[in-house]
UniProtKB/TrEMBL annotation:
This is 2-hydroxymuconic semialdehyde dehydrogenase. Keywords: NAD, Oxidoreductase. The active site is at residue 248. It comes from the Bacteria. Pfam families: Aldedh. Its EC number is 1.2.1.85. GO terms for molecular function: oxidoreductase activity. Residues 13-473 form the Aldehyde dehydrogenase domain. Belongs to the aldehyde dehydrogenase family. SUPFAM superfamilies: ALDH-like.
Amino acid sequence: MNYVDGEFVDTGNCFENISPVDGTVINQVSEADRALVDRAVASGRAALEGEWGKMTLAKRCELLHNVADGIEARFDEFVAAEMADTGKSFFQARTIDIPRGAANFRAFADMVKSQPSECFHTDTPDGRGALNYSVNKPLGVVAVIAPWNLPLLLMTWKLAPAMAAGNVVIAKPSEETPATATLLAEVMHSVGIPKGVFNLVHGFGPGSAGEFLTAHEGVDAITFTGESRTGSAIMKAAADGVKSLSFELGGKNAAIIFADSDFDEAVAGTARSVFTNGGQVCLCTERVYVERSIFDKFVAAMKVKAEALKIGWPLDEDTDMGPVISHKHRDKVLSYYASARDEGATVVTGGGIPEFADDRDNGAFIQPTIFTGLSEQAKIQREEVFGPLCHITPFDTEAQAVAMANGSDYGLAATVWTTNLQRAHRVAQQMEVGIAWVNSWYLRDLRTPFGGVKLSGVGREGGVHSLAFYAEPMNICIKL
Ligand SMILES: NC(=O)C1=CN([C@@H]2O[C@H](COP(=O)(O)OP(=O)(O)OC[C@H]3O[C@@H](n4cnc5c(N)ncnc54)[C@H](O)[C@@H]3O)[C@@H](O)[C@H]2O)C=CC1
Ligand SMILES: O=C(O)/C=C/C=C(\O)C(=O)O
């Protein structure tokens, strides 16, 4: 259901939400039309003029803490809804997705309280001087367009700082994952977020709620996570209104493994960075570069890791990997598997569809896959696939590894595995990415800058970077 102006709204026009686990219909989702998006924007504008716009910072932050508490109070429902929509494992949903949904609200409610404003004393010719100080104002109506891979986590990563900074928001979750956003609307409603401050519209991108929202003249800023091509389409839609944009886009992330690394840690960490969430995290590794002296041993150890992954029912406690998000997405990933084979790759493991002889055969399961033997020019080495796969390439020198890792149109994340401290700093700092991990992966601190270079994004979120994006600093100059 949509949630606009403090009310749950059924437009009467529905689309089916399909389970990636067994292909059944989970439920019908009400698709927002242009009129409902118009109403959401008007309602948001009214909220900025009303109670929300006048609310003290302390009260706003208290409400955001209440949202976090509200998510936790319904933790099991959120976990079940996220698993149903995505097929992700119980472990992933209950240890990462839903806890981060709550943590995002707490983190930004606390951070905004210590957001400083700038102040400068300025000399003037008459010697009296002037005082400049800035105040942070909200941007206004912010459109939040979220993807399906970490639905609640990524949506709240944007909603929380936007609301903490005093904006009103209109959220559009992916058409693949409407459920936790709808539960979140119920939480917002129950904790008393004033009407119009949080609005939720369901639907697709082009010709639907996504496009109506991003092209809307009443929207002041757009924050988006998803595919780079979609980012480009949204940028075009936003151009006429010259709106502020924050984009977290795709990745084609590299891992560099040196012979002096802790071998077992490097294998375990790299396997996690490749296969977590079925490879459907923008930070996942798809290109692995391994120093030649340990190449064969590393490939063999990764094969063991991939084949040990338990693929199955998301609800089973010991399931490591569920299906990918949809049959359409599985077809896309399979087409990359085929293209790798066509270009002469060696299939170390996987490359196809697992068989279960039960209802899961109607789902979108796919085998974790490792390739070797391709050049840097191969399609699978250049394009983001967003599935449970990697290609492993040997290297001979540090400079060669750095050049190959950086030889991508994308620049989101990289991982470096070495026990040589100087090399760790040297190589990490040479990575052309927004985030480099050394001897770890997906170690997150919500205060750190998060985002990408090249095709991987525009701007940074996280900590003060999020708060800066969602605020309009205004300078006041007083002649003394
Ligand atoms: N790197 C990342 O974070 C992600 C990458 N992907 C990749 O993108 C591919 C396509 O998946 P999608 O779900 O279609 O991702 P997408 O990037 O197209 O969709 C993300 C969000 O944008 C919305 N959207 C799409 N087109 C839009 C438009 N023209 N205007 C406004 N909103 C629009 C969608 O409805 C969804 O809410 C996947 O196969 C995957 O490879 C998907 C999700 C996240
Ligand atoms: O903020 C995080 O912890 C994760 C971010 C992941 C993405 O932005 C993504 O997968 O698109």
